[in-house]
Amino acid sequence: MASVSKVFVARLVGLAVLGPDGESIGRVRDVVVAIRMTGQQPRVLGLAVELTTRRRIFVPMLRVTAIEPQAVTLNTGTVSLRRLHLRPGEALAIGQILDSRVRVDDPDLTDLAGVDVNVVDLGIERTRTRDWVVSRVAVRPGRKGFRRRSVTNVVEWHHVHGLTQTELNLPGQGVAQALMQFEGMRAADVANALRELPAKRRDEIAAALDDERLADVLQELPPDDQTDLLAHLELGRAVDVLEAMDPDDAADLLGELPDAEAESLLERMDPEESEPVRRLLTHSPDTAGGLMTSEPIIVTASTTVAETLARVRNPDVTPAAASLVFVVRPPTATPTGKYLGCAHLQALLREPPANIVGGILDSDLAHMRPEDSLEAVTRYFATYNLVCGPVVDEEGHLLGAVSVDDLLDQLLPRDWRETEPEDTGPIGDLSGIKPAGAGA
User: Fold this and answer.
1) Is residue 60 part of a domain?
2) Range of 233's domain?
3) Which of 41, 79, 313, 348 is least crowded, fewest Cβ atoms below 10 Å from its Cβ?
4) Is the pLDDT confidence value at 146 over 50?
5) 235 and 306 co-located in one domain
6) What is the 3-state secondary structure (H, E, C) of the chain?
7) Any idea what the CATH number is for the domain that residue 267 is in?
8) Are residues 82 and 117 in the same domain?
9) Residue 118 and residue 49 in one domain
10) pLDDT for position 326
């Protein structure tokens, strides 16, 4: 299939990136553009490519040999695995430039003269020197009232004014196109993409996410980014997002804040939401009590297998947490009544739906104490080949459960999300390609 020399950047997002032998390297997630002096066409430096490991790297446009409807082909299967890092004067087309406001002076579009319009796409093309530049801009006037969506117009670059680094740094930029990019993405992948953006743009996008979505994304960010993003939210919004977070994640975040600031937020939270968070904060973060979630799947012995599996099927429950159901005497809210034992997911799947959970109870499985150390928790999981385990106090009340993902998060270095191992694998060569900005 013939390669194209002109394309709109939004069409590139999601395309497979292939090596010369057809091996898959990743997928295009954005385009890196150098914003130059007013009047000069922005130069397209390269592609932001997401690997199967979810890391985003930079691939220079000079490495691109073909852009086709289904894939982008490179002239090499060796790429640098350094995380994408923007330099001054560079911007991400999808993440930063789209939704910005500009003005156009196209004589064929007199109705747009003197009117602020929104950038909805960028047209790029390859020049005779093999460089790629931004040649056209798709713009659309903002909607007013209940008017039907405005018509999109494609304007030559030299008729566009206001697309500069200064303008991109001004507050109030729209986020519609950026949010479209995140639709269907896992929260961890959205968090990964947000980390690449300047703080101003990241805060704009975060403000536009609904509370549940932002809570999920916040939980996947490194601690420093969590506290910084929370600090830029209005107080009421910050409280709403904390209430939407899992209690253990909210406790971890509040534990990073000064005591007075954390207490101020806790006081504004709904008491039903803040109480489990306060209980978790009483435990040291490097103990089972500090690692546990206070909201595992808990049922009574008289609950049917069908009811229990319905709880397990909840998409908000992680696979690790769904592997084990805890059976207690009422009340079922933590700290519960007497802990009776657990029911393994595999055992539940083998039972008739009408049977009760009390009939397949595993009452012999050892449990953890809230004061158990990280080493003790690690040994527990290794000994019993589990990915989730109960935390029970001296009186026999279930306090919560530790899942293996919480343990790994504590065992790994604090900055593990930011400092991925530089294991190049079969497609990598750290010395082969310079990071974004080199040669711009």
Assistant:
1) yes
2) 209-282
3) 313
4) no
5) no
6) CCCCCEEEHHHHCCCEEECCCCCEEEEEEEEEEECCCCCCCCEEEEEEEECCCCCEEEEEHHHEEEECCCEEEECCCCECCCECCCCCCEEEHHHHHCCCEEEECCCCCHHHCCCCEEEEEEEEEECCCCCEEEEEEEEEECCCCCCCCCCCEEEEHHHEECCCHHHHCCCCCCCHHHHHHHCCCCHHHHHHHHHCCCHHHHHHHHHHCCHHHHHHHHCCCCHHHHHHHHHCCCHHHHHHHHHHCCHHHHHHHHHCCCHHHHHHHHHHCCHHHHHHHHHHHCCCCCEHHHHCECCCCEECCCCEHHHHHHHHCCCCCCHHHHCEEEEECCCCCCCCCEEEEEEEHHHHHHCCCCCEHHHHCECCCCCECCCCEHHHHHHHHHHHCCCEEEEECCCCEEEEEEEHHHHHHHHCCCCCCCCCCCCCHHHECCCCCCCCCCCC
7) 1.25.60.10
8) yes
9) yes
10) 98
